[in-house]
Amino acid sequence: MTQETRVTAAMIVIGDEILSGRTKDVNIGAVADFCTDLGIDLTEVRVVSDEMDAIVEAVNALRQRYTYVFTSGGIGPTHDDITADAIATAFGVALPINAQARDMLEARWKQTGTEVNEARLRMARIPEGADLIVNSVSAAPGFRIGNVHVMAGVPVIMRAMLEALAPTLKGGKKVKSVTVKAAVGEGTVGGPLAALQEQYPAVKMGSYPQMGHGKVMTELVLRSSDEALLAEAAEKVRAMVAAAHEKAGVAPPDSE
Amino acid sequence: MTQETRVTAAMIVIGDEILSGRTKDVNIGAVADFCTDLGIDLTEVRVVSDEMDAIVEAVNALRQRYTYVFTSGGIGPTHDDITADAIATAFGVALPINAQARDMLEARWKQTGTEVNEARLRMARIPEGADLIVNSVSAAPGFRIGNVHVMAGVPVIMRAMLEALAPTLKGGKKVKSVTVKAAVGEGTVGGPLAALQEQYPAVKMGSYPQMGHGKVMTELVLRSSDEALLAEAAEKVRAMVAAAHEKAGVAPPDSE
């Protein structure tokens, strides 16, 4: 993969409830899958608290370094929802009520008979120069400013926002993967796998022990954007694993 | 909570498989719960790839800043398990085979008839000056060097290592929490909650919309290490929520 085709991303999960353990994050996995599908290389994730300095520091560190930044959390109507404030601070722009966002919210509130108040109007504050990320689940929009995409923390809303912004992102060259299952331990295949990794530096090889199956199992995962090279390397890994099975006198796992 | 009693922590999750979405992390939640139980304030989490520079940078940034650092992942026997190498580099120390770790591993391998080879012996390489973190699930130890605690990525092993190191950690003043359930939306309680937050700065108030219950529900979570103050603030929040229920003409949720 050349430098030109590599598209990178970082994610920032914002929320005390994740750091206290009260809420278990599922958005990292969703963004990871989303990026992999688009050929975007998610390179780093940070989870930070609902503190202005922590959010600003993470946003400014990561938006310089990666093609895209995705954030989740902190865009609701309560005082601890300070993501929009922090993003405006990070970019040095104002945070006015956005007319389009206000219209979207008020239209929804009219349908549901919800009172318009100051807390709810917090959700219409959008940094100057940002585009809205609409979502079909709640009427409250996320937004994009520069390369930073600000989304809700509620998983179903965050996923709707990802769908909405997908067409606006450029993908990289897609990385394909091949999984080879071995009925021996990581320690058995570790040496020969390292030798194959050296032989195929453009194919990234990972090894993952599978626990809780009542028998020893290891999954070897090969990734590359070069399909021909990936197939060649996978053939070598399969042969190496077959030899390891034979040496250990064990049957290969049922399927790959 | 005074500065003296505040004990902080950061976590580093190491592994390409988390960033690609292939594996969904559950260790962040486990470490978050663990810290909360001990009165340790988990303040930041980073997920980084299996790259030397990325791991070293995260370790050196976070170990300066927090009382403790916990890492998960990358201590297995294969070439992509480079956490021990990265920690040794971050601390500027050698990474020799540790005799105690080797003995523990060899004893287990003898029991299971597992061959000793170079790949498996990678797991006995421990940075100079580190103490082992033993675990009952696998024989491969984690280790502690300075304030950095290096653990396995396999969740059941990581949790066993957390149990092993718990007695070695100093806890902070325990933070208690009270949850108040409201049958109105976040936007309805947002304004009065912000006013109460200003009145009780030592009680951290968070607001979490509950989706998928078929009706509007919000949980307000109050946290403080000062129990009397927490009880006082909770009483005020309950009264505020009761008034909101009455104004909206809705019944309070079944239980708190």
Automatic annotation (TrEMBL), chains A, B:
Domain MoaB/Mog: 10-172
EC number(s) from the headed UniProt entry: 3.5.1.42
Enzyme class: hydrolase
Pfam entry (one): FLAD1_M
GO MF: nicotinamide-nucleotide amidase activity
Keyword presence, ATP-binding: no
Gene3D superfamilies (alphabetical): MoaB/Mog-like domain (3.40.980.10)
UniProt name for this protein: Nicotinamide-nucleotide amidohydrolase PncC
The organism of origin for this protein: Devosia equisanguinis
